[in-house]
Amino acid sequence: MNRSRLVLFVSVVIVALGTIAGLGVLWLDSARADVGPLPGEGLVLPAETRFVGGVNVKRFIASPMFARYTDREGMHPKAMRDLEEKTGLDLARDIDQIVVAGSREGGPKSRPLVLVLGRFDLDKIGGNLQTEGKANPRTQEGVTLFSYADASGSSTMALLNESMLVFGPTDRVEAVAASHAQGATPLSENAGILALVESVKPGSTFWMVGDRTAMEALPSAIPGQGGSAAMNLPPLQSLTLTGDLDPQISLALTGVAADETAATKLADVVRGFVALMTLQASQKPELQQLASAFNVTTEADRVLVSARIPYELLDALQAKKQEGPVGVTPE
User: In terms of residue numbers, what domain contains 297?
Assistant: First the structure.
């Protein structure tokens, strides 16, 4: 083979290898592509997931709600306080998104998994977890795991990489760590949940979806008032909730019932609760404004509930709670 032919042959091989590599990258990217608001990294969650939800932490931190109520205990859930205490992470500085996923399996497995995405110093987090024996480290398929005991039982945190960690029940975290190490995406097998996630409105600050199995945890009846019989509620086939916090609190909830009749019945129940708020408006005028913030409609087998709640209304309701008579709890 003369020199010119050799150069041509090498060039063709290089182009072919580059094309194959490019197609491989495209294939891997598509396997990990975002699904609605769920980041592609979330596909590492278990296939048996029955409900999943997320919070865009950056949007939450930038919202008027966080600015107004940042000192309230409810703005710092215990799970997040525990995470910050154990790892030294800072919510505003280090975390971009939080995804929570769970199933309806009994026992410890019913506790959800929490996937946290952001920018993490793995050495620093590992050192904080080992300080004073907070957690015991071990390695599984190249992933560092820290196990610890808490009120819920055995829990584990896995440091998957510099941008992703997961914590929750030990056996389920181990399964996620194995999937991550193997490049597997178990949640992509759950077509039902992913279809619900794809229906979520883009750009939501927080969202949640649950399938029929997850909805079995909801009450099947509500007690009657004034001695009347309890009202049986039609079961939901799925539930989707989305929300935003700027410039006001905006909520959109969609419940799918078995049929149009069941959807109408569920909508009537929700309208009944809104009517109760209206009836109490003579004593608490703010309840009239709150009731007016809700809108309930139906579309075939779907119940649609939306709400637009100004922060000024929340402030007024909080003020009324604080002015309540001695011995009467705000709730």
Answer: 217-322
